[in-house]
Amino acid sequence: MFAQVIVDVAHSQVDKIFEYSCPDDLRTGCRVKVPFGGRIVEGFVIGVSQNCSFPPERVKPVAEVFDELPALVPECFSLAERISSRFRVPKAASLRLFLPSEMRRGTVREAFKKYVTLSGVQATFQKNANKQREAAEFLSDKDEYEYIALCEKFGAGAVNALIKKGVVCVEKRRVNRNPLGGAERSEELKKLTAAQADAIENIENSQKTVHLLHGVTGSGKTEIYLNIIAREIEKGKTAIFLVPEISLTPQMLSQLRARFKGEAAILHSGLSAGEKFDEWWRLRSGEAKIAIGARSAVFAPLENIGAIIVDEEHDSSYVSETAPRYSTIEVAKLRAEYNNCKLILGSATPSVESYQSAIDGKFNLITLTERINKKPLPEIIIADMRKEVKRGNNSAFSAALREELDSTLKSGNQAIIFLNRRGYAQTVICRDCGYVAKCENCDVSLTYHSEENCLKCHYCGAKYRMLTACPDCGGKRVHYGGTGTQRAAADLKALFPRARIIRMDNDTVSGKDGHYGILRQFAAKEADILVGTQMIAKGHDFPAVTLVGILDADMSLHFSDYRSGERTFQLITQVSGRSGRADDKGKVVLQTYCPENYILRYAVNYDYTGFFGNEMQVRKATGFPPFSLICRIMVTSENAETAVETLKKVYFATEELRQAHPDEFIFLNRMHSPIKKIQKKYRYQVLMRLNTYSLLEKIYDIAVKNSSQNCLAYVEENPSNLS
Ligand code: ADP
Ligand code: ZN
């Protein structure tokens, strides 16, 4: 037999299929080791056949076969093929997406435990073999006992002697390293509301593949997802459940675990290599049927999928910004088509692209306009910060927010304070000469962190000593401007000395359970105020939270990006949605310097359709997506000259394309990227706006052709981050 193998060589441009002779029982989808260019490398078997296109004596044999059960399910091959051609990812790299990285180097294997039992063979013991006799007696009334534990009791020598005599036999069994050990608890099934039941029927009965579940925050979307999954499992199918960031959703996880027990498996970058491996195999072997995870879980090794759910579908984390670059929702669509199953996109604030598809009839639209039990959405109060400044209030907290905080604390409820900047002060400026502290590796200003008393770069993580004087002019008037979460928490402590305040941002969460600890603490009411960045906006359900303060609602409005309005609307709606979810009425104080902005007006009234209509008019008038396609070819290199050289080549090739298709281009230019350097790499870009997707392949061609080890060139489609 011969195997067709794709070799898994990092950075390789080899995207070819190689042939090797192999054992007769080798199956498509297995991972193997093969000789390749004088080395032994890993590879994926993408096919086996009787014949070979070379003279057989020239074909080398497969060196080692990894799996008995093929690691790759049949769907992988067609999906990898489509991902390769759609997003221009090398074949090996797209196959690799289907395997947890821990599996690849073959370093992690299954975990085994040994169990011993009496065999029934009559034992004869020498006089001094007391330990052996005791061990045998100990086992006589037990079904089985763990080998290691028995060795600890009676000594390995005695136990091994019993095994050698045949008195005791050993069985090796696979054990699962359970990442949620002990987290299982049962939960009573909720009686569906009429709106939930209607939504489920609607999804069940629609012939469309993609369903957009647009439901206000607290409308009970989770319960709908769980019911749909349960129905599919009952039909003998499997399901994928995607969330933006899994460590932020412990409540969701425990709900899923409570409902589906061992049938749910979690794919999560925070798991240990062993746990990840086991959860993955539980899915692959069919023991678990529901894959839960962030975007990479869209590649879960499931067959016969009945439903794919993408919660918070508007979230930008669903687009991979590092290689291999892919859109999770597009991949989910491909899988839904292959499996002929449902894809459910859920959000209180759908992306305008998704909502437009729903209006156009491409997606089935389901709308939930009310919270569970008709609870009102929290009232949003606007605090005009210009007036605060005029009144002499230069702090980060408006009078309205302070008052509301005061009464919330007095009533024994909890508050969430949101601001999307971590650290203490965002910029460090010399008031004498205007010097700004910047990172040596990146073209960005440094943030002051009070806890470590240092300056940090948020792009590469580099730390610098805090300034006591300006390094340029020696001036002593160093100013720390722009409030971050550390300062907000410190200021709150000064305002409300008795309040228990906790913070959640990238600095306070570390390790596997970092988020979990903070969220659990807040849920247990061990703190009164939670201060945090956007990670506190995502889906949490804290019943005692009745106040949300948004410190800088309009900051994201000023990003030079066509999505800034959309993102601001989403953020305000999501953060506000954390308030007043249980019995007590909720409030939101939204601080802004531009209260007349239309985005804020729609957000305050929870008017998604109003926002959508207005946003589409703006996008149409200005020719931005979905009325056009923005493409950026990024060029990055540690060597500035190489980057500029490559930029020129990329630009001229694109310019040639434009001359051949003048009607397709709305805009084309080359420039420095807004952030000129990140992690020592210089960044340039060719930016273009196109009328349609028809030239996309040619644009990818240009990038692929000009990309090299020393200078990367890659395409981003409608990038959500244009820095
Ligand atoms: P969403 O995801 O739409 O923001 P959730 O799914 O978190 O909303 O539900 C909001 C709250 O309503 C949760 O506390 C949830 O437990 C509760 N809930 C959902 N469905 C029901 C129901 N049918 N009966 C009672 N409570 C429900
Ligand atoms: Zn840096």
Could you explain the architecture of this structure?
With 723 residues, the chain is an alpha/beta fold. Helices cover 31% and strands 24% of the residues. Strands 11-12-10-13-14-9-15 form a seven-stranded parallel sheet, with helices on both faces. A six-stranded parallel sheet has the order 16-26-25-17-24-23, sandwiched between helices. Bound molecules: adenosine-5'-diphosphate and zinc ion (ZN).
Beta strand count? 30
Bound molecules: adenosine-5'-diphosphate, zinc ion
| Measured distance between first and last alpha carbons | 52 Å
Largest sheet: 7 strands, parallel
Principal-axis shape equals globular
Task: Summarize the SSE layout with pairings.
Blueprint: E1 2-7, E2 18-21, E3 31-36, E4 39-49, E5 64-65, H1 75-87, H2 91-96, H3 101-104, E6 111-118, H4 130-140, E7 145-146, H5 147-154, H6 156-165, E8 168-175, H7 194-205, E9 210-215, H8 221-234, E10 238-242, H9 250-260, E11 264-267, H10 273-284, E12 290-293, E13 305-311, H11 328-339, E14 342-347, H12 352-359, E15 364-368, E16 379-384, H13 385-390, H14 399-410, E17 414-418, E18 425-430, E19 447-449, E20 454-456, E21 463-465, E22 478-483, H15 485-495, E23 501-504, H16 514-523, E24 529-532, E25 545-550, H17 564-576, E26 587-592, H18 598-604, H19 608-622, E27 629-637, H20 640-660, E28 665-678, E29 681-690, H21 696-706, E30 711-717
Parallel strand pairs: 9-14, 9-15, 10-12, 10-13, 11-12, 13-14, 16-26, 17-24, 17-25, 23-24, 25-26
Antiparallel strand pairs: 1-2, 1-4, 3-4, 3-5, 6-7, 6-8, 18-22, 19-20, 20-21, 27-29, 27-30, 28-29
This protein binds adenosine-5'-diphosphate and zinc ion.
